Amino acid sequence: MLEVRGLCSGYGRARVLFDVDVAVRAGQVACVMGRNGVGKTTLLNTVMGLIPAVGGSVVFDGVDVTRAPTHVRVRSGMGYAPQGHETFAPLTVLENLKVAADGLPRSGEAIEEQLELFPRLRPLLNRRAGLLSGGQAQQLAIARALVAGPRLLVLDEPTEGIQPSIVAEIVEVIGQVAARGVAVLLVEQYLDVALGLADTVTVLDAGRVVHSGQAADLSREEAARLLAV
Amino acid sequence: MRTVDTINQLLAQLPVGLSIGAVLLLAALGLNFTFGQMGVINMAHGELIMVGAYTAFVAQAWVGLPSSYALLVALPAAFAVTGLLGLALEAGLIRHFYGRPLDTLLLTFGIGLVLQQLARDVFGAPNVSVPAPPWLAGGLTVAGMHLPYARLFILALAAACVAATAYYLSRSRSGRRMRAVIHNRDLAAVSGIAVRRVDAATFFLGSGLAGVAGVALTLIGPTGPTTGTNYIVDAFLVVVVGGLGQLRGTVLAAFALGLLNAMVEPWSGASLAKVVVFAAIIVFLQLRPQGMFTVRTRALT
């Protein structure tokens, strides 16, 4: 579903990513891991087109989208929930979902689907998103990324700073989404969450891939060694 | 006795203050979009107001519409003319200066000078006057206060523009998109919104409202190449005092400044009234730099 090959990117002259390869198949969860500052978020932002790629290619569903603007990628079926459970704070929960669902043939049904996936959001529909707790905001952020029915879901640390009970709910939703055939590209710091969900694992260090393979082949000890600070 | 006199005097200034407020509000409403929401310091906004005023002049003097309904034609025409002018400026120039506020300020200041000179070349340097429609002549006298119809019309026009803006932002699909882009561009892009197109639409609306303000100004004074320049500083102040991008803040600030100006003026004269208003704004912004209203969130920053 997603093929990232030889991707290089960065900010101005500062290179952050060197020759990164990542692939995600439909229905699978590909987890990108690494210490702070190794380029995980930069990788996701480059995949989504928020940062221009300096080299390499991003191919989504057989189409090269390396130069496509972000909204075109999103409309072609790539959904993204950025780091830090970002929402449109001045808009209500319902408006947050509508913004992403506008223009869909059945936007009402699409929003209803998300409310079934995240029942906690239903009583909060008319609350401004800026007033949500971290966990609620993260659920809204994922629902917003899912509402257009993407075939690829890109998530940046969806469990960061969120209470354990909601982490469990989010993990369950990610599993359900993948089971429906959506490809999931996940950046995750918590080893348990990552290894519990992932089909494949890619470990980054200093902007390069230092490990790539099936999650089942990666022992906890090996993972801990690769991620050691 | 003295207190009663003072109160009567203040009351007599009330309609004056409201009408100054309404003019300020019309001038600031467009800036609420381009400056308050997009953060573009558009010094040419005053010249867009001027272009709107000349649109009203052209409708009567050149096209030859009778003054009885020229005003009603000029309002939408000025909205379209200045909106398209703003759109062209955004697409051709201002877009390339996003994220560079000082350069934008200089650029738009230059655009303003060019537009002023163009107006001088086309319409001549002396002021022109645009006859008000006959049905706006005269006024109401309520409780000893004289309310000219022209001022009441401006008040109603300002109210209508605020209502339309509020409805557009809160109820329409494209207004929702606009708020989303203004709050967080990247998040809007990853929600499938074409952010550049929304920028252009925001600029069109803000500039179009400047045109409407210009038409309103023809009702209360002569039109000249520097007509808009007199309002640009006040309009920026209204947006800053109200809180960036906050519609209700802009409304309150416009009337607060208008009333303050009108209340102080009879005692101090026009120049000193201006000083008092500016001093009050400085004190207010020292105490509350974010303006009257801000978007409240649980985030600490």
UniProtKB/TrEMBL annotation, chain A:
| PANTHER family reported in the protein's UniProt record | HIGH-AFFINITY BRANCHED-CHAIN AMINO ACID TRANSPORT ATP-BINDING PROTEIN, HIGH-AFFINITY BRANCHED-CHAIN AMINO ACID TRANSPORT ATP-BINDING PROTEIN LIVF
Q: Family assignment?
A: Belongs to the ABC transporter superfamily.
Q: Name one GO molecular function term.
A: branched-chain amino acid transmembrane transporter activity
Question: What positions does the domain ABC transporter occupy?
Answer: 2-229
Q: Which residues form a coiled coil?
A: none
Sorted alphabetically, which Pfam families does this protein's record hold? Answer: ABC_tran
List UniProt keywords, sorted A-Z: Amino-acid transport, ATP-binding, Nucleotide-binding, Transport
**Domain of life, source organism:** Bacteria
Concerning PROSITE patterns, the annotation shows:
ABC_TRANSPORTER_2
Q: What is this protein called?
A: Urea ABC transporter ATP-binding protein
Stored InterPro entries: AAA+_ATPase, ABC_transporter-like_ATP-bd, BCAA_Transport_ATP-bd_LivF, P-loop_NTPase
GO terms of biological process kind: L-amino acid transport
